[in-house]
Design goal:
The protein is of the alpha+beta class. It has one helix at about 30-45, and strands spanning about 15, 20-25, 55-60, 65. It is built from one helix and four strands.
Amino acid sequence: MSEWIKVKDNRPIVIRSTDDHTEITRCWGVNIAKDLIESFEKEDKEKGWYTPNFYEIFNDRTKQIVE
């Protein structure tokens, strides 16, 4: 993902990008965002998807990817 997405209330967003589509989800906090990514990864494994997936957590306050 090449550009930042601004969030007015500083809530982090999760960007989930696959070969087919991109989903953007605003979360209430970084821990919730991390849980969301874990659920996406679990779902992908259960469905047997082999396409490379890309997950990022962005926080508008720091303009950095939250590790």
